[in-house]
Write a structure and sequence with these properties.
globular, AhpD-like, mainly alpha, 7 helices
Length: about 120
Amino acid sequence: MDERERQQQGDAMRRRVLGDAHVNRAATRAIPLTAEFQDLITRYAWGEIWARPGLDTRTRRLLVIGTLVALGRFDELRLHLTAALRDGLPAEDIKEVLLQQAIYCGVPAANSAFEVFREVVEQM
């Protein structure tokens, strides 16, 4: 696969996982200083990693949610929680990941994640 094909595959996967509105908003907000970063994550995060056949989208979603909790990246967590719920991932599955993270990442991280989760659920 060449870079153009990887970019197209990445764009399709990114849209499937995060939704057209998010991807369109990110593209619209890109400026010359950030456009290369948008291209990089589209080709590599979405076109290379998310599109791999080794794990299904559900598993990748759960891994990303857990990782974002561990890293304390709660703005990005909000994005992935919203997209996951909108795509039909059961809230109970997300709750289990957050409980698991309370043990392995710490109660404060899980507490913040549960607050973000609560807000996302209420907004939907």
